[in-house]
């Protein structure tokens, strides 16, 4: 294994920017000049900051216009590509260069270089470099070798499970190559007799992804880029883009989900999202080729007109509306702002009377805390699942309440 220059931490990056500004006696730097002088890639910057301006602000300087931009792909010469390959190889002190290393440290894309010379291997050969040992080994991988290598790494770590990230760090080939052999990482784990990570969630609720998208939009004050979103989420970029046919497709689905579920969206952000949705819709000229995403289904319920149990706050609103009278409520009105519902609650006594009741709908009672709602101004949480036992507000768990009503099987 050859050594490689580590990507600087956030603090180290800020210091490098300050040191460069001090060295050149300037109060502003362009991103291009910084990258060319230090040899760092865009990834080194955007790993820690949303924009170059944010990085400069943290370093106490301002941004400067970029000098003449690097050529467009069709303007790169063979010599420029070769020189860039050699520069990255020298930076990493290696003669065996992988496309992954080049994507991280190069100032020309690896795909551009590959197209220029017909293949990545061809580009390396012309540059006097060679493919990494992992790449050469991956060309002739057998299922048996993959299984043994996965077992070796798991034994080294002392686990009966293995993640793709762990394998990438300790294996002799990449997890991507293993997936190419078996079709998926989980099929490979099964073949090797290993388990998925205990933290693995087979299906991430789309509501969680849409909420992360909304929170990121509120945080950055605009429609977030994929990098900005993943930096603020516990999920990786593939969860948002790869599973939904690209980031644009995810954004469209997330915005529609937020609007249809009456999410509480600040007015300024709502305008951004509406504009973005129009742009995505206008650019979508696929017509009948649009892939329709099926409605999410919970477990079989078969309670009256509800075939499946709720999977979102919107479903909770629908179900409560259907049984409110039997549970002793009259709905005055629903809205998207907190609290969601103004209702009247039947009061027990010799005479029928009603008292005001302000209701907040949630799929799970703990969502009330996650959404950071104030306790004051809400009398009751109506949810499908009550998972917040220390909740200071009264909770009506519909999954329990409907069992006493007609129509429950």
Q: Termini, distance in Å?
A: 63 Å
Task: Pick out the low-confidence regions.
Answer: 1-5, 286-291
Total strands: 9
The structural class is alpha/beta
Shape: globular
Largest sheet: 5 strands, mixed
- Main sheet: strand order: 5-6-7-8-9
Radius of gyration: 28 Å
Number of helices: 21
> Strand portion, in percent?
5-15%
What order do the SSEs take from the amino end to the carboxyl end, as H and E?
HEHHHEHHHHHHHHHHHHHHEEHEEEHEEH
Describe the structure in your own words.
The strands form three sheets. The chain has a five-stranded mixed β-sheet with strand order 5-6-7-8-9. It has 21 helices and nine strands. The protein has 409 residues and is an alpha/beta fold.
Could you list some keywords that capture this structure?
two-stranded parallel sheet; 5-stranded mixed sheet; 21 helices; 10% strand; disordered N terminus; alpha/beta; 409 residues
SSE map:
Elements: H1 10-23, E1 28-29, H2 31-38, H3 42-46, H4 52-59, E2 62-63, H5 78-92, H6 99-105, H7 110-117, H8 120-126, H9 133-138, H10 143-157, H11 164-170, H12 175-182, H13 185-192, H14 206-220, H15 226-231, H16 237-240, H17 247-260, H18 267-283, E3 300-303, E4 306-308, H19 313-323, E5 329-334, E6 341-347, E7 353-361, H20 366-370, E8 380-383, E9 394-397, H21 398-401
Parallel strand pairs: 1-2, 7-8, 8-9
Antiparallel strand pairs: 3-4, 5-6, 6-7
Helix pairs in contact: 1-4, 7-8, 10-13, 14-17, 17-18
